[in-house]
Automatic annotation (TrEMBL):
Residues 296-392 form the M23ase beta-sheet core domain. Keywords: Coiled coil, Signal. Residues 111-179 form the Peptidoglycan hydrolase PcsB coiled-coil domain. Residues 1-19 form the signal peptide. Gene3D superfamilies: 6.10.250.3150, Glucose Permease (Domain IIA) (2.70.70.10). This is Peptidoglycan DD-metalloendopeptidase family protein. It comes from the Bacteria. The keyword Phosphoprotein does not apply.
Length: 397
């Protein structure tokens, strides 16, 4: 009886061994396939990451150019305002010169009238002398009948000579004044005309530049929107790849019968910092402090000093640990049952885990920083349910 049992046991053992070999081979084959898929996903993610980084670099470049253009616009507007002030001053100056010209014209007319009147007197005397014959001053004096008459004639001649001299000097002065005022007025008017023409040309040039800058800003804004769409699409693609990687990692663990790292079944999450911190920006619609645009803030910002340890909120597996557009350096942890937590703006060289790492609740995974779209050191903390951001506060209470 014992002899029959022994061959039977040996036969069953051999059969069992033969059956175990295909199963082990199947498990190994499944794991290899998953590893191949993970490798492909890693390459896809690297490509998407590169595309996102390139888009972000272009966005930064466009934003810088847009900011510089806006500054140039401000400078141009100030120049336009200055030109307008100069034009106003020139108009006032033209009015003053016009008044001066009118006054000078009146003075010129009066001076010309005086000159004409004096010339008329002198011509009248010359005509009288011509008609009556030329009589010299000496003839007048020698024709005196007595000494008293001689003295009277001397005084009369002195008065005539003085009057002639005064007339000639006044005429000369008036003529010089007329010529000088005329020259000064013409110079002033010509100068004002030139200045006005220059200022007018400057205003036209500045207005043309202002229009060109407005067109450029509109073009840059359009370009920026296209790049933001590309970057946002890349981020979605990266997130989807991370999800696929997590699912493949879970299949790999199942195939190798490894213990699942996911233990979350509901309840309160661990606080992501060692100490409570002030919420500097809540889970609300807000104006992005960097871009100045309205957005839905997908998490909460917790104020903390640079290098402060960031703690995993729950047991899980790291599905992302790299740069992501506005988040800067970023870590995403999968906790199972559709629950993810995201940690953003991590400092440079501040990511202490890698994709595929299993982390425990309260484990230090990164350090607080200010990378990406950030105005200061803080932790951006998100909770995502089935990839949809939800208010983290109820999970932390």
């Amino acid at each position: 009886m014992k002899k029959k049992i022994l061959p039977l046991v040996l036969t069953l053992g051999i059969a069992a061994s033969v059956a175990a070999v295909p199963y082990a081979g199947y498990a190994a084959s499944t794991t290899d396939k998953i590893d191949q898929q993970l490798t492909q996903l890693k390459k896809q993610k690297a490509d998407a990451q590169q595309k996102s980084n390139e888009a972000q670099n272009q966005i930064t470049k466009v934003q810088n150019e847009k900011d510089q253009t806006a500054k140039d616009m401000t400078t141009l507007l100030n120049q336009v305002n200055e030109a307008s002030k100069r034009l106003t001053m020139l108009n006032e100056q033209i009015d003053q010169v016009s008044d001066t010209l009118e006054s000078n014209a009146k003075q010129l007319d009066e001076a010309v009238a005086r000159v004409q009147s004096r010339d008329s007197m002198l011509k009248s005397r010359v005509r009288l002398m011509y008609m009556n014959g030329f009589v010299s001053y000496m003839d007048v004096l020698l024709s005196a009948t007595n000494f008293s008459d001689f003295l009277n004639r001397v005084e009369a001649l002195k008065a005539i000579v003085s009057q002639d001299k005064s007339i000639l000097e006044s005429n000369k002065k008036d003529k010089e004044t007329v010529a000088l005022k005329k020259e000064e007025t013409e110079k002033q008017l010509e100068q004002v005309k030139v200045l006005y023409a220059n200022a007018d040309a400057l205003r036209d040039d500045l207005q043309a530049k202002e229009k060109a800058k407005e067109v450029k800003i509109a073009s840059l804004s359009k370009q920026e929107k296209v790049l933001e769409d590309i970057s946002e699409e890349s981020d979605k693609q990266i997130t989807q790849i991370a999800k696929q990687e997590a699912e493949l990692q879970e299949k790999k663990r199942a195939a190798s019968k490894a213990k699942s790292p996911f233990t979350y079944a509901g309840g309160k999450l661990g606080y992501p910092l060692a100490a409570q911190a002030q919420i500097t920006s809540d889970f609300v619609n807000r104006i992005n402090p960097v871009t100045g645009k309205a957005e839905n803030h997908k998490g909460i910002d917790l104020g903390a000093a640079k290098g402060t340890g960031i703690l995993a909120a729950e047991n899980g597996s790291v599905i992302y640990a790299s740069w992501m557009n506005g988040y800067g350096n970023c870590v995403i942890v999968n906790h199972g049952n559709g629950l993810w937590t995201l940690y953003g703006h991590i400092m440079n060289d501040g990511i202490y885990v890698k994709i595929g790492d299993v982390v425990k609740r309260g484990q230090k995974i990164a350090g607080v920083g200010s990378t990406g779209q950030s105005t200061g050191n803080h932790l951006h903390f998100e909770v995502r349910l089935n990839e949809v951001p939800t208010d983290p506060k109820p999970f932390l209470r």
